[in-house]
Structures
1.
Amino acid sequence: EDQVTQSPEALRLQEGESSSLNCSYTVSGLRGLFWYRQDPGKGPEFLFTLYSAGEEKEKERLKATLTKKESFLHITAPKPEDSATYLCAVRQGAQKLVFGQGTRLTINP
Amino acid sequence: SQTIHQWPATLVQPVGSPLSLECTVEGTSNPNLYWYRQAAGRGLQLLFYSVGIGQISSEVPQNLSASRPQDRQFILSSKKLLLSDSGFYLCAWSVQGIGIQPQHFGDGTRLSIL
């Protein structure tokens, strides 16, 4: 069965302190890996789609990378407004997304 | 641009009461539509999806049902709510057709069962 595991569960950083979030997956034939940002009480907001190993996508201070077994979300010089829960999901079949539990990121000023 | 609306934002219901949550999408035609539940401390779980009017696929057996009476309207229902139905319900849409399309989420309904 397809599985997605995110680590760490929670991460506290100081403003400007760069780090990475991990998403490990086991899936028979990857058909897309997705990163979302979720603020408290809100729905997930789409960030990136990665299709194949070696692919990278960037948006402002975020950079997502993909290998055959995992994806990383690198955050460079984060700001307090980057605080959120970051979710990773892999596509299963034609319609289903299998989500990880998320990483709760807190950036202290 | 496309927008997705869910209502109500919060709902408190007694056990055994009925439920109707509504979701509408604007700015696109013939979208795929989805209902997810996010329980505290757990990931998002797909409940239902629809690729067209009247076409509903259920992912998990449960006390809930879904309907799609119009192209851009998706409804989540229950005849009798259970305590275990509490959670954060999210509607999402995606473009049909070519390629791997991301799903885009609404802001959810927080459902509390008393």
2.
Amino acid sequence: AQKITQTQPGMFVQEKEAVTLDCTYDTSDPSYGLFWYKQPSSGEMIFLIYQGSYDQQNATEGRYSLNFQKARKSANLVISASQLGDSAMYFCAMILNKFYFGSGTKLNVKP
Amino acid sequence: GAVVSQHPSWVICKSGTSVKIECRSLDFQATTMFWYRQFPKQSLMLMATSNEGSKATYEQGVEKDKFLINHASLTLSTLTVTSAHPEDSSFYICSAWIPGTGKTKNIQYFGAGTRLSVL
């Protein structure tokens, strides 16, 4: 069964605008962690942001914020003020007994 | 953040040869490392979980004798693709996990990946 779902295979955003990348998850375990990673064309996976299931506040890291809605089981990534360098694949992931990755969203930032 | 070094970054080999990929945690001790495989334009597929001092746990469908994993120390895990064939050509990524609590914990740090091309 799919545990992490990213429904947007690709997205376009204008430079300097904000963009939201969707992620929903499925688990009955009360303890889990949610991650977002960025994978540029070079292939390396870059850690962006982490949200624990018990964290009361939404995680923020610079221009990245995680919109954590526990009841809806969603963990959307919001990138504010998009930059050309943000163009990449973005993966949502969840840690339970092991890591589960979504299928990814390819973000293209237009000048 | 923590640094994971993966080497080599790109390897081309002939069919039938074996290839070893190294994954090192440079500034922390990693009791658990993971090995992933990624096909073009697809997500990461977990191959195995590597625990220091014990046998690796392989995911269903991954051949243990084909993909040998050794985690001999707290900072090094190796993946050996034995008798590589063209269908083994892929992007292989390792990661190290720091479990626990706190802002810097519970994060999986990735190596830069290894592109394997088998001729």
